[in-house]
Known about the structure:
Blueprint: E1 5-8, E2 11-14, E3 22-25, E4 36-46, E5 51-54, E6 62-63, H1 65-74, E7 78-92, E8 95-110
Antiparallel strand pairs: 1-2, 2-3, 4-5, 4-8, 5-6, 7-8
Amino acid sequence: MPSPFALVDGVLRVAMAGFKRAQLVFGQGGKMMTRWEYLTLSIEYDKKQRDWATRAAGKPAVVGLQAILNEYGTQGWELVALQAEYMEVYPAFGKWCLEPQAYRATFKRALAE
């Protein structure tokens, strides 16, 4: 009878009855790799506050980039990407200027085992 286990490029594949395929991912040295969950949110420039703000459903607005990073950081989220999501274009002294009005922030944190 063939073994239900196969190690291919650091991925342990397990053949189980009733499942097409299950796999556990191991890194170097055979240690289990960390699994992550991700969160994306929009950080918009609030002209009334004159600062960056984010509004999550059912929660008060968090104002200020440092406050946003601290708020999510205390919940275990790590910022991994920040990309301009919306730009405002306006003329200025013979040239065009682009100014970000919103950013898309991507955070990650380790899943609880």
